[in-house]
Amino acid sequence: MSERVKVAVVGVGNNVSALVQGIAVHRATGSLVGISRPVLDGLGVADIEFAAAFATSPDKVGRDLCEVIFLPPNNFPRLASELPLSGVTVRRGLTGAEPGEVERVAGDLAGAEVVLYAAPSGRPETARAYAEAALLAGAAFINTTSDAVARDPQVLNRYVAAGLPLLGDDLASQFGTSVVHHALLRLLEERGLTLTSSYQVNLGGTEDFKNLVENSNTKHQSKLNALAANGSAAERVQVAPLGYLPHLESQKVAHINIEAQAWGGTSVSVDVKLKVHDPAGAAGVHVDLIRIAARALRQRRSGYPAEAGPLLKSPPGTSV
Amino acid sequence: MSERVKVAVVGVGNNVSALVQGIAVHRATGSLVGISRPVLDGLGVADIEFAAAFATSPDKVGRDLCEVIFLPPNNFPRLASELPLSGVTVRRGLTGAEPGEVERVAGDLAGAEVVLYAAPSGRPETARAYAEAALLAGAAFINTTSDAVARDPQVLNRYVAAGLPLLGDDLASQFGTSVVHHALLRLLEERGLTLTSSYQVNLGGTEDFKNLVENSNTKHQSKLNALAANGSAAERVQVAPLGYLPHLESQKVAHINIEAQAWGGTSVSVDVKLKVHDPAGAAGVHVDLIRIAARALRQRRSGYPAEAGPLLKSPPGTSV
Amino acid sequence: MSERVKVAVVGVGNNVSALVQGIAVHRATGSLVGISRPVLDGLGVADIEFAAAFATSPDKVGRDLCEVIFLPPNNFPRLASELPLSGVTVRRGLTGAEPGEVERVAGDLAGAEVVLYAAPSGRPETARAYAEAALLAGAAFINTTSDAVARDPQVLNRYVAAGLPLLGDDLASQFGTSVVHHALLRLLEERGLTLTSSYQVNLGGTEDFKNLVENSNTKHQSKLNALAANGSAAERVQVAPLGYLPHLESQKVAHINIEAQAWGGTSVSVDVKLKVHDPAGAAGVHVDLIRIAARALRQRRSGYPAEAGPLLKSPPGTSV
Amino acid sequence: MSERVKVAVVGVGNNVSALVQGIAVHRATGSLVGISRPVLDGLGVADIEFAAAFATSPDKVGRDLCEVIFLPPNNFPRLASELPLSGVTVRRGLTGAEPGEVERVAGDLAGAEVVLYAAPSGRPETARAYAEAALLAGAAFINTTSDAVARDPQVLNRYVAAGLPLLGDDLASQFGTSVVHHALLRLLEERGLTLTSSYQVNLGGTEDFKNLVENSNTKHQSKLNALAANGSAAERVQVAPLGYLPHLESQKVAHINIEAQAWGGTSVSVDVKLKVHDPAGAAGVHVDLIRIAARALRQRRSGYPAEAGPLLKSPPGTSV
């Protein structure tokens, strides 16, 4: 029987809400709905357990993780009528204002094997400071944001030297716009059609989405990294500005259009509307990254574990 | 340099119009738009040449193939302002009323290496009679309709015995509803989502489509054969009745909906509208089947060539 | 203060389930959501009360109306966690097999002022027999099906002679495909655009919908009556076959497409997906028809009350 | 027989291209396709004639109007294979750099009765300077941009004092996102449904659209003015950021979503994709505004002619 994976989470937003609740539902009901890999490297979803959590907002610090996930601006829905307390008290994260903070956080990691960095994108210094804390504590680190951490050679080299795994950057959603758009463009190519033009529009209502809208540079580069896999077709694909529409709450809506030419130059058009809960798409990938990170740590593999590749948009080697 | 493939076509409907015109456009302009495989088994698209054509309607018989493809009820558009005559005169096909007809048609095949059966679905006896004529003439036979020919063991055995290739049944469009629906359902499964329900609605305006509406049994079985590859998911997929809407002309419109559950049981929905020219989707596959058939014949391979599989909905071994 | 309207319902399907539950929700919460006219002719929604109910299925007869609305094949959802019993026991309706049935039912109407005929479409004789029973009992009659009752001059004349109101036929949903399609076509015309072509596809999952699919003649005529208001445009509008997709349950999905030409002959296209709960769209109109019928009865107005016109697809004077 | 209306156009962008070409098609073919009002105040579409045109780009000045409309970045398509020269040479417009420019332009108006201001939005000073030139020349003025001209009380008062008509601001497209969205929201309300939330996304590929994206403030206020007619519902409607997608060329694509509640609180959703040629939607309204302006001038009516109201988004009295 496998030992449970102890995880520390940084940031207690919607994605962590989805992660915590989804694992609880799976434990309570045994349901495998939406779980991509019930067992990964010998570890089940129920083998993930939370050991520590960090946030900066004063109304979050000091309360139980399972209360904090429901505080606004979080708006991911309650998945079940009851969720027992976790026993994990949310601690004060890095503020950048005090000396010795990184060491303090490292000390608070409470023996976690894996640090899941799930704070908002757009603060690369903070992300790298948490990576430093994890390194001090001897933990694996997962950067789910679009900030450059794993694809920053300096950080990666330090992890390699320390013999610890480092996973990132920017997780590919389990089933989001990129996944569907990419699959349709690939299908078009496989079937011999010629792409004329294509666009995608993304609309969302979470605080994370709002941050992306206001801070779209690293995210935009990360999206281009994801589309580069489509080769020359990428030039013909346009990404409209993100739209923050609060009433969507934790849902994300995407409109995808593809115009192409088939045999004889005749026209083909494909229009897609996709509606997902963004935090669920993230959590479904978190559970895989956590298990990959834990196994790599236990096997003393250092640096970037290549098997995480399909789950990330900007792995080491892509543009910063 | 390869010898040109001589093809006889049975039925001069929209699909043959798209095939004849598309090859002419490719020859005139060199355009590779919409051509899946520019070279297949050493043969280019321009290596296909028409040697004979058969129809039953009195106003078609006796005229040049390149005139007949524009006669109503054909409604596939003109792809270029000019199309030279082919030099192939459309001959009277099998009527079932005269003795010795099969032999007559076999004699009229004019040295064709490949017989492309592209008449309307729904007349299995006629389809098999043409297969018999091709066999007498020593030609390969391609059944593009949903009628059982290649998946009829008796017919297949005769072809094997004669050392001739037999391809069929029911071609999968180059890029049609089945292809897109199947790809999305597979993607869903790959990403670990759980299908709740799905539907497709198909609307079209060609004479072929009208025939399908009126004669939907073999077609329906063939669609089920195509979906069976999705395994248990197939039970949750519903196909609405076909709708014949004349004003769509040679376009086909499909509405596809997929409802699924992701991580934590959260809902995911995908809605697709697909718009294609049905005959172009057929012609794009015809050019591959013709070249596979020609190569198999020239290599003296008998029976069903397995490489045709991805291009067919109901290959040998599927339900009749 | 107004006296409550006593209503007898014939048929205890999804539409009656939506009606009964919606009134209960309104009574319990005061909510006016989805209620078109809170007060109509001095009567509120809460002024409607059920006095009798009729069904033919043996497992429905003898049980309370509020239990029967949840029996399969009904699949309209529960709107609230609790629904008290109604005190109305469902009685055996007309079977056509016994003498004196019409008189028996008339006697069982229990002093109802309004008879709401909400059985499945497709049994015009039965519909007219209930109209006869209502007439005997001195009640107003509402035919919500597409069968010809109010537009049958013989029946209408009998109601006029008896001094009783008769409303029908075929109710226009509060917000369904016809309403939206009609509004968009009218908008197009108002703005000076020229319609090229248009289609609608309707998909549903209720037992009523299944009956329509199997018995589409009177329904089809009724749809044409509804579209005739669009004048010449109606010729360019095509209605695809109805699709019965059980997994939709009580939802109806419609796909509407409009292709048009604007200034200079440039193309305009509008694509709509509409998703509604069909029984709710019916119930929202039932509450208006019931109140119109009651008021007409109390004011001793006989025959067809013109103010019901906008709520009906085939009023008196349209084709049978 | 009516005297032709002489029009001067300011700005020779896509909208003027659509206007000039559409009138030419109507003259050549008599086609009334897409023409909202064939005769308005006694004037036909063919009664509009161009007398002068102004642009600032050096490659436009000095060439015939019918050549200039096809110069990039204009990308509205050619409507007919041939378009004769107009005989109107494009003159240099206001640059703001020289003294006496307004007087020069007034002199160049060449007896025009109506000045149609169709330059890009976002330069209110320039718009008002042209209004001054028109006033000097005794012409009616139409401001089709979202800049405040007619709704600027100072400008309006000067027109009233001079006895000249002034029309504006910001024309409502003949059939655009606002028109369709507004109609559906109104329909929802008429039928008694309760709006939950709604959004619209607008994507376009013209230079005008690009300007709007970069300069969205006056446009945004103008859109709010247009939606204010929906009353409280406006609060629940969100407008996503405009997306400039060059490959759309002169097409505009809008995605509209409406979520509502019907009877019993059941959910209703409407999704619309709208595809139009934006310049055609503008030109179809230009021909009406020009004729209203000409008639008002000829009847010596001064100030804002109220009958222009339905064609404008921000008439006098709305917020600046």
Automatic annotation (TrEMBL), chains A, B, C, D:
Give one GO term, molecular function aspect: inositol-3-phosphate synthase activity
Q: Which Pfam families match?
A: Inos-1-P_synth
**Which top-level group of life is the source organism from?**
Bacteria
Q: Which residues form the Myo-inositol-1-phosphate synthase GAPDH-like domain?
A: 176-278
Q: Which Gene3D superfamilies match?
A: Dihydrodipicolinate Reductase, domain 2, NAD(P)-binding Rossmann-like Domain
Q: Mention one GO biological process in which this protein takes part, according to its record.
A: inositol biosynthetic process
Q: What is this protein called?
A: Inositol-3-phosphate synthase
User: Could you tell me which species this protein originates from?
Assistant: Trebonia kvetii
Which classification does the entry list for the species?
A: Bacteria, Bacillati, Actinomycetota, Actinomycetes, Streptosporangiales
